[in-house]
C-alpha cells in the first residue's frame, strides 16, 4: 500500500496495465513526452517507450477513430481526451461506431477501448474546462460510463475499464485530482494525505464496473452522487444534521440499481446530487428509476440538486456549483415534507 | 487605410455541366492517354512525385491492349478471375435490385460501373489484410468467393442473416474475408483503417489496411483526420476515394471535385497521391500493388483516387434522371470496366464471345442458386433471426436493463 | 386552407419564409436542384434561385458551422441534416457553439439558426436511419428542440423556429411525412387526406414554441408524447379502454410544464411514451419533473414506455418500436395499481 | 497471390529535433531569403501558383531593409502604429502574466513573438471586416485601440467585464472591433468565418472575413470542413494558420508539420496557399493585402501560413522547459517581430533608440493605467458582475427553468 493522490493512482493503473499487457497502449494530446497536462501519464513514455505512450494530433475524432481501429485489430487502447469538454468532436465516433460495432457486426468486431477524460468543474476553468457531459453518454446503449471519487476506486476502476471488452468512458473529476473537495471554495485546500481511500495497492487489482459503494450509511434519506459530489455530499449531509445514506455510484452505466433501490426502500426519501445542468441530466434517469421502483416507499418527492441550466459561467463558478448548502436544504426539505 | 471600391460580392454555387434535358459533357476533364504516366519506384520520397495526382494512370488502351509502365502483367488466369468477380457483382446487383421491387428487401445499392475497384484490390491484397469498405465495394467479397447465399441472407434480413438482422441491406461484415463492418454513417471508418494499420505496425505484424470513401464523403472531417493520423504515424494503409462523380444528387463540385483532383488532397499530408482510371482493372491493380508495396515496406500511406462513374441510381430510393441527363452514364468516356477487361482478354487471345457467354451463364446460375437458397430461408419479413438475439451483443455481457427488457418480451 | 401532408406543410413554411424574409436561406445535402431526399425543399431552388436554396458538401459539421457564421452575420439560415442519425458529426458545433454564442459573447453575437432533420423510425431504415436523439439536445441549455406531429403544427412551428432568435433543432418524424401512423405496421397505410390537422393555411402563421396541445382529453391517466408517438398513443389509448388525456408536447425545449402538471394533477397518473431508448431518454426528465411537481397527486408510478436499450435493429423494427399494445398495457397497469 | 516477405512493420512516432538538455536545431527548415519569392497577380488562377506554398515570403532582410516584390511600401506612420500595437501587446502580456502570479486572474496566455500577425492584419483590413480569432491574436485588438481597461476587466472577470464574467480570461468578444467571440474549443470558429463570408457575398456586401487556427489545430476536422466550404462556395475569407511550432507540449510534427508546409494544405482545396514569415510585419501585411484583394474581387479564399515561434509557454498552466530546450526560443532564426520592425524603422531613418524608449515608456504607462483602472474595479473574486446577469442571454428570452432557478437564488 502506498499513499497516492488520484493522479498517482491513475498513473499507477496505467503503469500496471502497460506492464501486464502488451496490447495496452496509451495516446492523446500531450500525454507522451510531457506526461499529460494533468500529469496522469507522467514517466510512462520514458518507461515503456514512445510506441506505448505517445502524443496525437489535436483531433478528438481522429483519436477515437484510431482507438476503435486498434481495438478492432485486437489491442486495448487507452485514449485520453484532454478535457471532457473537448470530447464532443468525437461524439459521433463514440456513439455511431464504438458503441455499436459489436452489435452491428453480429459480434465479429468490437471496440474494447477506454477513453479517459478530466471532467467537471470547481477549478475556475470556465465554460470549456468545467463541464460534466455524462448524461449524453449514459443514454447511448453500448457505452459504459465510469466516474471514480477517490484514488483507490480510480485505480481499480481504470484497470477494470481497460480489461473490459466494451468501450468505456472514464471520467476523472479533476477537482479532486489532488485532494477531496467539500464544495466550500473558501476553506483550506485538502490533499489526499491520510484519507483512507488514498491507501492504494501498488499492483494489479480491480474494482468491478457496476458496483456502487455506500459512502455513508444512514436511515433518513438516500443521497445518490458520484465523483466530486460524493465529497460535497458528505459536507452537505453533515451540515444538514440529517442521517442520510450516501451512495457513490462509481459507474453510471452499468448502474447498480439494486443498491439504490434497497437504500431508498429503507430510507423512503431520495435526493440526487450532480454537477451537470439539471434538465435532461443523469439525475433525471435516476429519479425516474427510483420513482418506478420505490413508489410505495417514497415519503417525499425525489429531489434533484444540480447545476443550473446554463453554460458553466466562469465568474459565477460558486453560484453555479451545487454546494453543500444546496444539498443540506434539499435534505431538510425532504425531511420536512408531509 | 481603406481598400479601393470593388464590384460587390456574390455567392458562388457550383453547377454541374449538364442537367436533365441537356447534353451530357465531360469536356471539363482531362483523361490523358493509356500508358502515358510515369511509374516512380514506390520507395521514392513523396516530394519527388507531386506531379502524379494530376495525371490519370491508365493501362488499357482503346484497343484493349495493356500498355505503359503501370501494366501489372497479370496472368490470364488472374484476369479471368477478376472478370468473374465483376460479373458476379453486376449480375447479383441486377437480381437484388429487382428483388427490392418485389418487396423482398427494404433497400439495395448497386455498384454498376465500379466493379473493377473492389475486385482488383481484393485479389491483389493478402488474406490477412483488412478492407474498410463502403457500400459500393461488393466486388471485394465476390472476388473472395464470399457465398452469394450469405449476401442474400443479409439483404433479406432473414433467419440466416450472418449479422442477425441488425443492419440495413448491404451493411455486411465478413471478418474472415478481410471485410470490416459497414454502416450507414459516411466516413467514420476511414480512421478505423488507420488505427488498424497502426496496430499492425505496433505489433510488428505484416498486415496492411485499405479503406474507401466516396467523392462526396471526402468533405467529412473524418477524412481529414484519418489522413492526418496516417501521415503522422506513417500507417501502413491504402486510403481510396472512389470518385464516381455523384453523391446522391450532388455532383462532384460540391466536394470541390470541379476544381482539382481528389488525389491532390494527398499533397496536404505529404502523402503520395495517385489518380487512377477506376474502370480499368489493370490500372486499379497496379496502383494498389504500388501502394501496398510502399505500405509493406514501412513507407506509410498512399491516397488513391479512382476516377469512375456511378452508372446506376444512388440506391433503390433514388431516381437519377431527376438531376442528371438520362444518357450521361453511357457517355462516360472511360467505359464499362467489365467490357474493357473482356475486350482485353479477347485482344490477348485468351477469350471470345462464346467463353464470355458461358461465364455469364455460369455466374447467372450461381447468383440464381444462391438467391433462391436465401429466398427459401425467407425474404424480408418472411423469416428473421431468433428474436432473443436482438438482446445479444449489445455489451459483451448484458446488464440488468437488457435482461429486464428481454424478460418483458417473454424471452 | 389546403390539404397538405407533412412534407408539403414544411415546404410551404419554407416557401413562405423565403418569400417574406430575404435573410432566410436554405442549404443541406441534396436540398437544392433535387429538392431533398424527402422532397421537403422541392421546387424552392427553381423558385428562389440557387443562392437561396442550395446543396452542400457532405459535412454536417461544416453545414452547421456555416449556418452559425451566417447567423452571426445577421441571416436566418435553415440547414437540413439529411437524417437525424447524421447530426452527430455536428454535435460539437451545436453544443459548444450555437447553444452558447449569445451567452458567452455577452449578447454580442447569436446564432438564430434552424436545423431541420428527418427523425425517428418505423420506415425499415435500420440503425442509421431511424434514431431519435432528442435527449442529447434537450440537455443542452441554449438549444430549443421542436418535434411536430401533424401538418398544421409542422408549418406553424417551423415558421416560429425560423423567426426565433435562438438556435432551434427541428426534428421531423419521417414516419408520418405522408400520413399518420398508428403503430401497427400490418394495417393499411394511411395518408393525411381528410385529417383535420392536414388543413393548412397557405400563408404565414405560427404555432408558438413551448405550447403543448391536448390531443385527446381524458380523466384517468395523462399520456405525454410527441411526433409519431402521438398517433401511436391514440391507438394505444383506444385499445386500452382507459380514458387517457394525451398531451402532444410539440416542443420539448421549451417545455410546456404548466399543461403537463395541470393534466397530471387532474388524472393522478402518467405514462410517458417515446421511441428513443428508455435509459437516459427524454422521458426520464419528464418523469422526474412530473414526480417533483405532482407527488401528492400520483396514484400510481409514472411509467415510461419507450424503445429498448439497444441500437435500432433493422429486422426487429416492430419488436423494438413501442407500439400501441405496449402503451395499452402500461395504461392498464397504471389503472390497476394500488 | 502472395506478396514477398518484408521486414516487419513498425510504428513511427514523430520526435522533435531537440528535447531539454539538447541543442536546439532548426536545420530541418528552409527559411529562404528576403525578397526572393515572386508575387503573382492576385487575379491569377490557383493552378498558376502551386509553387508558392513551398516558399517563404519575407520582406525584411538581415539589414532591416524592405526588399522584393512583396514589399507593401507602407508609410512610416503606419509602421509606427504597427510597432505601437505590438509593443502594447507585449507589455500588456507581461503585466497580466505577472497579475496571474499574484492571483489576480485565473489564467493567462501570451502571444510573445507572434504580435506582428494580428497587428498587421487588423490595420490592413477594414473596420467592417470580421476577424474570427484565436487566443493568440490580442494584437488585433491592440491595433484597433480596444481599451486596455476592458481587456483587463475581462481578464479579471470583474464587475465591468464586457462579457459579464462568463468566460475564461482571453476569451474576448468585441463586435465593434471586428473581433468575433472566442472560446476554448479549438478550431470550431474557422467554419463560422466561412459562413460569415458567404453571408456577406450572399448579401452583395463588400465585407470579408479572416480566421485563425494554430498549427496543432489544423488536425481538427473543422479545419478541413471550413476549407472545403470556402473552396466550394468561393467564400471571401482569409484563412490563417499561425504555425508557432508548438501545440502545448506537442511539436509541429504531430500535425504533420515536419513533412510539408501548412500552406501546402491549400492545394487540396484548389486554393492559393501562401507561406509567410510571421515575424515580419511587412510580409504579414503584404500577404494579407494580396489575399484581401483576391477575396474582395470575388475570387474566393486564400490560406496563409504564418511561420513563427511560440516564445512563451502555452499558458500560465505550462512550463515549456519541461519539453523543449530552454534556449530554443532565442535561437528561432526569424527573430523577434518587434525588434525587426524597430530596426527597419531605424534603417529607413524614421526611428532611433530614444524615440523607441519613449514609445516603450508611453505604452508601459498606458498599460499600467488601464490595468490599474481595472484593478480598482476588482481583480478575480474581488468584484464580479451582478449575479442576476448569470441568468441572462441563455436564450433571447428566459424560459421557466431559468426563471425558477433564478428565483431559487433569490434574484
Ligand atoms: C454522415 C452521413 N451523412 C449523410 C449521409 C446520407 N448519405 C448516404 S450516401 C450519401 C452520398 C455519398 O456520396 P459519395 O461519398 O460520393 O459515395 P457514393 O454513394 O457516390 O458511392 C449521403 C449524403 C450518411 N449516410 N452519412
Ligand atoms: C477541441 C479542443 N481540443 C483540445 C484543446 C486543449 N488545447 C488548448 S490549446 C491546445 C494547443 C493548441 O495548439 P495550436 O493550435 O498550435 O495553437 P497555439 O496554442 O500554438 O497558438 C490544446 C490541445 C482545446 N482547447 N480544444
Ligand atoms: Mg460518389
Ligand atoms: Mg501552435
UniProtKB/TrEMBL annotation, chains A, C:
CDD domains: TPP_PYR_E1-PDHc-beta_like. Its cofactor is thiamine diphosphate. It holds the Pfam family Transketolase_C. It is an enzyme of class 1 (oxidoreductase). Its EC number is 1.2.4.4. It comes from the Bacteria. The keyword Transcription does not apply. Gene3D superfamilies: 3.40.50.920, 3.40.50.970. Keywords: Oxidoreductase. Residues 4-179 form the Transketolase-like pyrimidine-binding domain. One of its GO terms (molecular function) is branched-chain 2-oxo acid dehydrogenase activity. One of its GO terms (biological process) is branched-chain amino acid catabolic process. SMART domains: Transket_pyr. This is 3-methyl-2-oxobutanoate dehydrogenase (2-methylpropanoyl-transferring). It comes from Sphingobium subterraneum.
TrEMBL record, chains B, D:
It is an enzyme of class 1 (oxidoreductase). It catalyses: N(6)-[(R)-lipoyl]-L-lysyl-[protein] + 3-methyl-2-oxobutanoate + H(+) = N(6)-[(R)-S(8)-2-methylpropanoyldihydrolipoyl]-L-lysyl-[protein] + CO2. Residues 1-25 are annotated as: Disordered. It holds the Pfam family OxoDH_E1alpha_N. Its cofactor is thiamine diphosphate. InterPro entries: Alpha-ketoacid_DH_E1_comp, DH_E1, Oxoisoval_DH_suAlpha_N_dom, THDP-binding. Its EC number is 1.2.4.4. Residues 7-43 form the 2-oxoisovalerate dehydrogenase E1 alpha subunit N-terminal domain. GO terms for biological process: branched-chain amino acid catabolic process. Residues 84-378 form the Dehydrogenase E1 component domain. Keywords: Oxidoreductase, Thiamine pyrophosphate. GO terms for molecular function: branched-chain 2-oxo acid dehydrogenase activity. Belongs to the BCKDHA family. The branched-chain alpha-keto dehydrogenase complex catalyzes the overall conversion of alpha-keto acids to acyl-CoA and CO(2). It contains multiple copies of three enzymatic components: branched-chain alpha-keto acid decarboxylase (E1), lipoamide acyltransferase (E2) and lipoamide dehydrogenase (E3). This is 2-oxoisovalerate dehydrogenase subunit alpha. It comes from Sphingobium subterraneum.
Amino acid at each position: 500500500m502506498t499513499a497516492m493522490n488520484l493522479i498517482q493512482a491513475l498513473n499507477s493503473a496505467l503503469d500496471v496495465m502497460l506492464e501486464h499487457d502488451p496490447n495496452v497502449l496509451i495516446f492523446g494530446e500531450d500525454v507522451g513526452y510531457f506526461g499529460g497536462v494533468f500529469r496522469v501519464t507522467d514517466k510512462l513514455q520514458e518507461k515503456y517507450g514512445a510506441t506505448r505512450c505517445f502524443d496525437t494530433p489535436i483531433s478528438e475524432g481522429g483519436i477515437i477513430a484510431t482507438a476503435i481501429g486498434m481495438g478492432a485489430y485486437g489491442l486495448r487502447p487507452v485514449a485520453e481526451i484532454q478535457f471532457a469538454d473537448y470530447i464532443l468532436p468525437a461524439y459521433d465516433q463514440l456513439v455511431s461506431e464504438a458503441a455499436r460495432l459489436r452489435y452491428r457486426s453480429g459480434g465479429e468486431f468490437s471496440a474494447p477501448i477506454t477513453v479517459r477524460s478530466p471532467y467537471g468543474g470547481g477549478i475556475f476553468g470556465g465554460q470549456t474546462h468545467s463541464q460534466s457531459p455524462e448524461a449524453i453518454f449514459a443514454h447511448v446503449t453500448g457505452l459504459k460510463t465510469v466516474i471514480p471519487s477517490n484514488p483507490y476506486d480510480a485505480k481499480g476502476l481504470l484497470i477494470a475499464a481497460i480489461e473490459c471488452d466494451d468501450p468505456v468512458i472514464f471520467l476523472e473529476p479533476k477537482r479532486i485530482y489532488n485532494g477531496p473537495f467539500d464544495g466550500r471554495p473558501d476553506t483550506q485546500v485538502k490533499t489526499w494525505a491520510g484519507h483512507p481511500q488514498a491507501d492504494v495497492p501498488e499492483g494489479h487489482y480491480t474494482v468491478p464496473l457496476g458496483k456502487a459503494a455506500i459512502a455513508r450509511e444512514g436511515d433518513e434519506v438516500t443521497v445518490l452522487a458520484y465523483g466530486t459530489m460524493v465529497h460535497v455530499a458528505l459536507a452537505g449531509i453533515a451540515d444538514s444534521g440529517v442521517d442520510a445514506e450516501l451512495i457513490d455510484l462509481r459507474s453510471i452505466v452499468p448502474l447498480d440499481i439494486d443498491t439504490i433501490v434497497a437504500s431508498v426502500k429503507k430510507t423512503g426519501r431520495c435526493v440526487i446530487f450532480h454537477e451537470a445542468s439539471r434538465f435532461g441530466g443523469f439525475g433525471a434517469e435516476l429519479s425516474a428509476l427510483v420513482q418506478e421502483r420505490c413508489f410505495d416507499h417514497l415519503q417525499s418527492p425525489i429531489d434533484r440538486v444540480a447545476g443550473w441550466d446554463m453554460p458553466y459561467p466562469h465568474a459565477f463558478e460558486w453560484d453555479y456549483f451545487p454546494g453543500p448548502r444546496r444539498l443540506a436544504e434539499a435534505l431538510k426539505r425532504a425531511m420536512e415534507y408531509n | 487605410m481603406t481598400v479601393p471600391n470593388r464590384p460587390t460580392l456574390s455567392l458562388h454555387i457550383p453547377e454541374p455541366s449538364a442537367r436533365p434535358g441537356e447534353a451530357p459533357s465531360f469536356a471539363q476533364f482531362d483523361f490523358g492517354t493509356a500508358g502515358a504516366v510515369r511509374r516512380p519506384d514506390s520507395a521514392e520520397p513523396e516530394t519527388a512525385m507531386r506531379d502524379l495526382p494530376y495525371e490519370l494512370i491508365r493501362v488499357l488502351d482503346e484497343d484493349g491492349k495493356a500498355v505503359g509502365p503501370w501494366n501489372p502483367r497479370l496472368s490470364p488466369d488472374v484476369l479471368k478471375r477478376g472478370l468473374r468477380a465483376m460479373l458476379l457483382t453486376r449480375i447479383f446487383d441486377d437480381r437484388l435490385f429487382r428483388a427490392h421491387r418485389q418487396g423482398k428487401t427494404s433497400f439495395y445499392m448497386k455498384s454498376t460501373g465500379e466493379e473493377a475497384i473492389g475486385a482488383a484490390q481484393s485479389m491483389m491484397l493478402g488474406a490477412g489484410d483488412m478492407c474498410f469498405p463502403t457500400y459500393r465495394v461488393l466486388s471485394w467479397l465476390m472476388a473472395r468467393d464470399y457465398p452469394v447465399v450469405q449476401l442474400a441472407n443479409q439483404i433479406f434480413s432473414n433467419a440466416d442473416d450472418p449479422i442477425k438482422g441488425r443492419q440495413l441491406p448491404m451493411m455486411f461484415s465478413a471478418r474472415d474475408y478481410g471485410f470490416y463492418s459497414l454502416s450507414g454513417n459516411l466516413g467514420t471508418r476511414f480512421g478505423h483503417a488507420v488505427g488498424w494499420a497502426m496496430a499492425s505496425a505496433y505489433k510488428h505484424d505484416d498486415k496492411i489496411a485499405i479503406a474507401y470513401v466516396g467523392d462526396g464523403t471526402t468533405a467529412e472531417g473524418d477524412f481529414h483526420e484519418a489522413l492526418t493520423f496516417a501521415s503522422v504515424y506513417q500507417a501502413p494503409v491504402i486510403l481510396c476515394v472512389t470518385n464516381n462523380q455523384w453523391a446522391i444528387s450532388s455532383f462532384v463540385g460540391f466536394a470541390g471535385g470541379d476544381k482539382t483532383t481528389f488525389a491532390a488532397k494527398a499533397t496536404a499530408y505529404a502523402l503520395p497521391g495517385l489518380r487512377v482510371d477506376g474502370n480499368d482493372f489493370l490500372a486499379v491493380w497496379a496502383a494498389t500493388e504500388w501502394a501496398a508495396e510502399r505500405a509493406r515496406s514501412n513507407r506509410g500511406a498512399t491516397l488513391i483516387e479512382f476516377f469512375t462513374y456511378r452508372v446506376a441510381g444512388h440506391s433503390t430510393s433514388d431516381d437519377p434522371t431527376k438531376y442528371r441527363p438520362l444518357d450521361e452514364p453511357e457517355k462516360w468516356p472511360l467505359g464499362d470496366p467489365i467490357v474493357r477487361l473482356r475486350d482485353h482478354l479477347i485482344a490477348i487471345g485468351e477469350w471470345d464471345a462464346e467463353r464470355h457467354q458461358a461465364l455469364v451463364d455460369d455466374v447467372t446460375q450461381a447468383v440464381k442458386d444462391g438467391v433462391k437458397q436465401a429466398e427459401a430461408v425467407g425474404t424480408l419479413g418472411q423469416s428473421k433471426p431468433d428474436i432473443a438475439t436482438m438482446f445479444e451483443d449489445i455489451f459483451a455481457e448484458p446488464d440488468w436493463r437488457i435482461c429486464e427488457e428481454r424478460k418483458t418480451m417473454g424471452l
